[in-house]
Amino acid sequence: MAAHYLDFERPIAELEAKIEELSKLSDQAGGANSFEIEIDALRDRATRMRREAYANLGGWQKVQVARHPERPHCVDYIAGLIDDFVELRGDRKYGDDQAIVGGLGRFRGAPVVVLGNERGHDTVTRIKHNFGAARPEGYRKAVRLMDMADQFGLPVISFIDTAGAYPGIGAEERGQAEAIARSIERCLTLGQPMVATITGEGGSGGALAIAAANKVLMLEHAIYSVAEPGASASIVFRDNDRAAFMAEAMKITAQDLIGFSIIDLIIEEPAGGAHADPKAVIASVGDAIETELQGLAGLTPDALREQRAARFYAIGRTGMA
């Protein structure tokens, strides 16, 4: 499958196309040394260009990276970090929404409840998971899973990657706003440790619904916003073409948000983004989650709720002043 290059990666794409062309010529020539020397030099240059490009990304470029189709998704983190995973489906009221995936499993030997937004990797899975845009039954399923976590004394791990909740008529008729509010409320009242990780795009209440945790982690090139930049541009300017401007103005990057204390930790990504080395990124996310859960392990249910409340009250009072 051909690599997917973003707009700002075009010079790198051209260089790697040249590397591929020279590699074919080298194979035809029986691996001539002159080709190999030039190929190695070009590979070093491409690596350098990628490292420099990803070290200086602007807000709009980070939006593009966060939405990269090859970036690891919730199901990838579950496969890489959760053993003996048993998926639980349905909200016991209306149906099952695959935009939110969740269930029980073991994280590094310890039983946990895990849930997250799933966007899908190809046409079939994107339709199945509704592009990560959850309906009310998805958030009610999340509440059911958190109820179970409280009942059995299990920590909760969540992975956030959605542009926002599904805005369709059916979702509104079935109580979308209330379902999101109830899910946020359940996060805040949970008597067990909860660690949320923004792995790609964290958009609006659809993301916050499963991210009101004791600790909120965020990948280096992920984004987290009150509304996705295109929607924000349409609301403010009635002009979707100003999405790039809004991506900069809204301060939605991990580097912006840690300064506002909206997130607690930035997890580094390899040069080229999480999609360049998914296994390494998944392992790094696992290490960060394990550290945070260990730090929360000794707290009582009341202490966990108090810590969570204090964390979010502080944002409202000082974070965006």
Overview of this structure, please?
- Helices cover 51% and strands 16% of the residues.
- It is globular and about 70 Å long.
- Strand 2 (100-107) and strand 3 form a beta hairpin.
- Helix 10 crosses helix 11 (243-249).
- It folds into two domains: 9-56; 63-319, 2-enoyl-CoA Hydratase, Chain A, domain 1 (Alpha-Beta Complex), CATH 3.90.226.
- By secondary structure, it is α/β, with parallel strands linked by helices.
- The model has no long low-confidence stretch (mean pLDDT 89).
- Strands 1, 2, 3, 4, 5, 6, 7 and 8 form an eight-stranded mixed beta sheet that branches.
Distance between the termini: 47 Å
CATH superfamily of the largest domain: 2-enoyl-CoA Hydratase, Chain A, domain 1
Counted by DSSP, the helix tally is: 14
What low-confidence regions span 5 or more consecutive residues with pLDDT below 50? none
Query: Based on the structure given, which CATH architecture of the largest domain is correct?
Result: Alpha-Beta Complex
Count the E strands: 8
**Rg of Cα set:** 21 Å
- Please give the share of residues in helix: 40-55%
What's the main sheet like?
Answer: 8 strands, mixed
